[in-house]
Design a protein that fits this description.
Strand order of the largest sheet: 3-1-2-13-14-5
CATH topology: Cathepsin D, subunit A, domain 1
Distance between the termini: 43 Å
Largest sheet: 6 strands, antiparallel
Strand content: 35-45%
CATH class: Mainly Beta
Order of helices and strands: EEHEEEEEEHEEEEHEE
Number of helices: 3
CATH architecture: Beta Barrel
Number of strands: 14
């Protein structure tokens, strides 16, 4: 089975998934959030809008509007491989995932898609840019994704394999993350996901 390395080779895009802001907290730690109102008022003027890089060239029309509930705090090591967390997909498969603010879309491996019972041969397709060029990949609809106490429902994912992932089976892009108000605090090594009221 051929694998591809996900690459940010497409022009930066905000793609309707919302904006991510970066600012420096009072302790000197770098922080990020997708909600300007979640940034303390004294730091809003210094917040910098970050670019979200698309991993897809095709536009995916929502099959249904996703929604979220609950909250979670994910711990990470700033010098580690990334913001990794255990996620439960469709209430049946528990796998490690990277919370990826640099991707528009959720991406899951072929092995995970099979474990969840998807027939990717019959799934609709979209184009994804990789370091090997453009490839067409299946798209599936995840019924539910749970990370800690945070749950998202009706989340689309592209199915593809990627090198250098180690034990990680999914990249949780902005179509998942933007269902929550999130904050990343490099000082405390945490990412907080909170479903909007």
């Amino acid at each position: 089975m051929k694998t591809w390395i996900l690459a940010a080779v497409i022009a930066a895009s905000t793609s309707g998934q919302g904006t991510v802001y970066r600012w420096t907290g009072p302790d000197g730690s770098v922080r990020a959030s997708n909600s300007l109102s979640a940034i303390p008022e004294g730091y809003r003027s210094s917040a910098v809008e970050m670019k979200v890089v698309s991993i897809t060239q095709g536009h995916l029309e929502p099959v249904q509007k996703g929604f979220a509930k609950g909250r979670a705090t994910i711990g990470f090591t700033p010098s580690g491989r990334g913001l990794e967390a255990r996620a439960i997909f469709n209430g049946r498969a528990s796998r490690m995932a990277i919370m990826d603010t640099g991707s528009d879309m959720v991406a899951i491996t072929t092995k995970l898609a099979r474990a969840l019972g998807y027939d990717t041969a019959k799934s609709r397709k979209t184009w994804v840019a990789t370091s090997s060029g453009r490839v067409q990949v299946p798209v599936v609809l995840l019924e539910k994704v749970k990370v800690g106490g945070a749950e998202a429902f009706g989340v689309q994912a592209v199915v593809m394999d990627f090198e250098g992932r180690g034990p990680v089976s999914a990249l949780m892009g902005m179509n998942f993350l933007s269902l929550f108000v999130f904050e990343i605090d490099s000082g405390s090594g945490t990412m907080t996901l909170v479903a909007p009221n």
